[in-house]
Specification:
There is one protein chain. The protein has about 425 residues and is an alpha/beta fold. It has a domain of about 280 residues: TIM Barrel (Alpha-Beta Barrel), CATH 3.20.20.140. It is built from 18 helices and eight strands. It has an eight-stranded parallel β-sheet with strand order 1-2-3-4-5-6-7-8. It comes from Hypholoma sublateritium (strain FD-334 SS-4).
Length: about 425
């Protein structure tokens, strides 16, 4: 782990009374190498400008994206990226003192686009101290979509410890590929589509789980039909749904989007069964997301019956379930097979909101079951902001707890080390 260049705090933190009072905790927060337990690929250099850079600070899309630069979280990210790029001290760009928010943001965008892409990636990762990345490479997984413009997961090894990047398999993408292969060779009078799918999909996941590079599955059922996954579905309902998909496939040039609740629920149940047999975790997107999500169906509280039905499968609740963090913390506290990830709130949520998320997480969640992630995707700066802000928030919250004499400094250091590294190392058997 010593080969990594670890992040340096912003200058103001050197003067922090907390840093002077708790130097061991401060050092741990900013020098502990990290395992990123949930992230996505970076774009290829040739595709670096195909998406608006505003996506690095917000899940907003379309017209709403223009407003994202006016959030407190975005303004903080501008300051931190200016520090990373040494803009105010380099003399190559105007100072931000008299600039409005739009001008500050445009300054960041202009500067990063002038940088060689490999240099931009190295700069972001050298300042991050990320040792290992577990990559869900199914983001934008529609054939010909954004996934085709992204680097493969192994490519990211050049910025972390060699050979350490691993794969998280997005099960809905694999299910759609399985359906396409079945539909492409099926006749109009094929009445056995459902059983073919269930057999082939389970076999596909089993084979993937046997790969040394696959360390977990992930479900985005939260996006598709909600987290209230049923424990069983009637065969007739599943047959009708797959027939509807078959018709859609043939009338839409082979395109498939799995968004039929009975089939989505079946995909989740098959994935949980295989994961339990193979001893790998299943990650679930929960809470914070774009407009595809129905917020009322994104709380992990909906998953309680599912968690009880599959006690031999480990569930990883992603993104601190923001704004349902307490729901997630409760589940992680009372079920042995539930772990809580606290990613994506960095950098989408303000610093005070991030600290509140960590406080709420620590209200109930056992500290050996919390996992950090960046949810880094497309842009290298998303990884930098994801880890840097997490380090700041962990230090601030734990320092406050130590000062209140509810925890000693050594115990707080252990929590930092476990949350950033050792809990993920153990859960994913790295």
């Amino acid at each position: 782990m010593s080969e990594l260049t670890l992040p340096l705090p912003q200058p103001s933190l050197f003067l922090s009374p907390l840093a002077r009072r708790l130097p061991v905790l401060y050092q741990a927060a900013f020098t502990q190498p990290a395992i990123d337990n949930h992230a996505h690929p970076l774009l290829r250099a040739s595709a670096r400008d195909v998406l608006p850079f505003e996506g690095v600070i917000s899940e907003a899309e379309g017209e709403a994206q223009a407003d994202s630069i006016y959030t407190i979280a975005a303004r903080r990210a501008v300051n931190q990226l200016s520090h990373l790029f040494k803009l105010d001290s380099s003399g190559t760009m105007p100072s931000t003192t008299s600039m409005d928010e739009n001008a500050k943001w445009e300054r960041i965008k202009q500067f990063r686009m002038k940088l060689d892409y490999d240099a931009l990636c190295k700069l972001s990762f050298n300042a991050a101290g990320i040792h290992t990345i577990l990559i869900d490479d199914g983001l934008g997984g529609v054939p010909g979509g954004m996934a085709s413009k992204a680097e493969g997961y192994k490519w990211h090894d050049k910025f972390t410890a060699p050979g350490r990047s691993k794969r998280i398999v997005r099960v809905e993408v694999e299910a759609e590929e399985t359906l396409r292969s079945i539909f492409a060779s099926s006749a109009d009078d094929d009445f056995d589509l459902l059983s073919k799918f269930e057999v082939l999909f389970k076999k596909k996941l089993s084979n993937l789980a046997d790969s040394s590079d696959v360390v977990g599955f992930k479900s985005i059922v939260c996006y598709r039909t909600g987290l209230d996954v049923s424990l069983s579905s009637a065969e007739k309902e599943k047959e009708d749904a797959i027939e509807e998909l078959w018709k859609s496939y043939h009338s839409n040039d082979g395109r498939i989007r799995l968004a039929h609740k009975v089939l989505n629920d079946e995909v989740v149940r098959i994935a949980l069964t295989v994961a339990g047999e193979k001893g790998i975790p299943v990650q679930f997107h929960t809470g914070l997301g774009d407009t595809d999500i129905r917020l009322t169906h994104s709380s992990p509280a909906h998953m309680q019956p599912l968690i009880e039905r599959y006690p031999g499968t480990n569930f990883v609740i992603l993104h601190a379930s923001y704004p349902y963090t307490r729901d997630a913390g409760y589940l992680a506290a009372v079920y042995k097979n539930v772990y809580l990830d606290f990613g994506e709130v960095f950098p989408f949520v303000s610093s005070s909101g991030q600290r509140d998320v960590i406080r709420q997480m620590l209200e109930l969640t056992p500290t050996n079951k919390i996992l950090w992630s960046s949810d880094g995707h497309w842009w290298p700066e998303s990884y930098y902001l994801g880890i840097y802000q997490a380090r700041l928030a962990l230090f601030d919250v734990l320092a406050d707890i130590v000062i209140r004499e509810e925890l000693d400094e050594g115990a707080a250091v252990k929590i930092v080390q476990d949350a950033l590294y050792f809990n993920s190392e153990k859960l994913y058997r790295l």
